[in-house]
């Protein structure tokens, strides 16, 4: 802590941490009355995107949902969103999630010793690939043992055992990507995999989350049964299509319109800020974010159909870079994302982000007619 910049960063961490511990709500229901009125009488689904360590911004969304008393009926998560979405579906509140996030002090807690030394870890990976027989040798910077252990210990703080997806408080779906099985003549066609309360009730919450967050090149694929799975962000970074399809299946039973609260942790229109060397896993997540933005725009055109009774309220809580190992930015990310979303849902602005992305999608696809 010798330099002024380091001292400033420390003071910033302490300041934002104190704001979080205060926990005073900035929301007044009269300020968001149009938003709440819009939700009345509709099915409310929550969809949380991937976004690396920016997952802590999802905690701010859970906070807002709890403070406003919004009745979420189903939860969907991809990658980082599967962590927060899964915990929320299990019945864990934003304060408990906040405490768990603030308990992360250094990257080694999740990624293992020497987490920031990518050259050394790369050499280690190559040595393992050469001298140690494994299912996916040299496939990732990190192994996922420390990550799985952390997720397991976090869940066990609140439960006596790791719950199965069929035991959660709310129906939950985690999006992953199936890259094939381990047989010579078996399944070899890659496809989207939805681990859910209905489809895979016997899969544990931990295994579904790890499958959904196995970022290619960062973590090795997760094996469940005979199949291997990687991060769901390659196929559906913001899982609103999966949510919409679930509503279509059940629509005839309850005849209610749908609102998906879709939380996008992508970089938006910003480019990755380059200060010195870019960490390899942050570059991967940035590439996922750019690809995911295009997929999200296609998805919005398919899902946001007011004439047919389905709406997406797109929220974008992320407002600056937070890399996969930038743990010192966690308190600031949670405070800023909360304030940002509070502004997005005030008055009649709650559909602004949706409408902006719909227009971007029309321009990209050359579509002029209104939806």
Overview of this protein structure:
The protein has 13 helices and 8 strands. The radius of gyration is 20 Å and the shape is globular. Strands 1, 2, 3, 4, 5, 6, 7 and 8 form an 8-stranded mixed β-sheet that branches. Residues 1-10 have low confidence and may be disordered. Helix content is 44%, strand content 13%.
What is the radius of gyration computed over CA atoms, rounded to a whole number of angstroms?
A: 20 Å
Which runs of at least 5 residues are low in confidence (pLDDT < 50)? Answer: 1-10
- Describe the largest sheet: 8 strands, mixed
- Helix count from the secondary structure assignment: 13
Strand content: 5-15%
Oligomer: single chain
Q: Which characteristics define this entry?
A:
eight-stranded mixed sheet, 13 helices, 8 strands, 13% strand
Could you give a short description of this structure?
It contains 13 helices and eight strands.
What's the arrangement of secondary structure elements?
Layout: H1 4-22, H2 33-39, E1 43-48, H3 56-68, E2 74-78, H4 80-89, H5 94-102, H6 108-111, H7 118-131, H8 145-156, E3 172-181, E4 191-196, H9 205-212, E5 222-224, E6 227-231, H10 240-254, E7 258-263, H11 280-303, E8 310-315, H12 330-344, H13 352-365
Parallel strand pairs: 1-2, 1-7, 2-3, 7-8
Antiparallel strand pairs: 3-4, 3-6, 5-6
Helix pairs in contact: 1-12, 3-4, 3-5, 3-12, 4-9, 11-13
């Amino acid at each position: 802590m010798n330099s002024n910049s380091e001292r400033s960063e420390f003071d910033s961490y302490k300041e934002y941490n104190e704001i979080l511990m205060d926990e005073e709500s900035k929301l007044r229901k009269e300020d968001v009355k149009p938003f709440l009125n819009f939700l009345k009488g509709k099915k409310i689904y929550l969809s949380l995107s991937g976004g690396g360590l920016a997952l802590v911004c999802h905690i701010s969304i859970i906070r807002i949902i709890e403070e406003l008393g919004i009745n979420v009926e189903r939860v969907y998560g991809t990658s980082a969103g599967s962590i927060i979405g899964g915990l929320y579906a299990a019945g864990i509140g934003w304060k408990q999630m906040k405490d768990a996030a603030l308990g992360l002090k250094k990257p080694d807690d999740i990624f293992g010793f020497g987490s920031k030394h990518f050259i050394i870890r790369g050499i280690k990976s190559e040595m393992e690939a050469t001298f140690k027989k494994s299912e996916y040798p040299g496939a990732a910077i990190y192994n996922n043992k420390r990550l799985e252990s952390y997720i397991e210990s976090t869940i066990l703080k609140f439960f006596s055992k790791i719950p199965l997806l069929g035991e959660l408080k709310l129906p939950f779906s985690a999006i992953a990507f199936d890259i094939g099985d381990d047989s010579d003549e078996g399944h070899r066609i890659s496809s989207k995999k939805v681990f859910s309360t209905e489809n895979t009730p016997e899969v544990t919450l931990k295994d579904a989350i790890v499958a959904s967050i196995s970022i290619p090149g960062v973590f090795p694929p997760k094996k469940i049964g005979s199949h291997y799975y990687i991060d769901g962000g390659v196929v559906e970074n913001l899982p609103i299509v999966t949510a919409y399809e679930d509503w279509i299946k059940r629509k005839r039973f309850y005849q209610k319109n749908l609102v998906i609260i879709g939380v996008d942790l992508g970089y938006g229109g910003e480019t990755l800020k380059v200060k010195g060397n870019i960490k390899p896993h942050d570059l991967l997540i940035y590439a996922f974010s750019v690809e995911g933005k295009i997929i999200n725009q296609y998805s919005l055109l398919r899902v946001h159909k007011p004439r047919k009774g389905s709406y997406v309220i797109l929220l974008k809580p992320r407002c600056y870079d937070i890399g996969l190992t930038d743990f010192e930015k966690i308190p600031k990310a949670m405070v800023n994302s909360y304030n940002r979303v509070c502004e997005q849902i005030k008055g009649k602005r709650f559909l602004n982000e949706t409408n902006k992305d719909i227009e971007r999608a029309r321009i990209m696809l050359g579509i002029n007619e209104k939806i």
